[in-house]
Amino acid sequence: MRHAFGTTFDVDDVYLNTPSIGVPPQPVVEAVSTAVSAWGRAQTTAPQFDGAVATARAAFAQLVGVPPSSVALGTTVSGLLGLVAASLPPGARVLTADREFTSVTFPFVSAGHEVVEVALDELPERTGAADVVAVSVVASVDGGIVDLEALRAEVGPDTLVVLDATQSLGWLPADLGWADVVVAGGYKWLLAPRGAAWMALSDRLAERVTPVQSGWYAGGWDAIYGLPLRLHPDARRFDLSPVWLAQVGAAVSLPWLASLDAEEVRDHAVGLANRVRRGLDLPAGESAIVAVRHHGAADRLAAAGVRCAVRGGAARLGFHLHNTDADADTVLEALS
Question: Is the pTM higher than 0.85?
Answer without folding.
Answer: yes
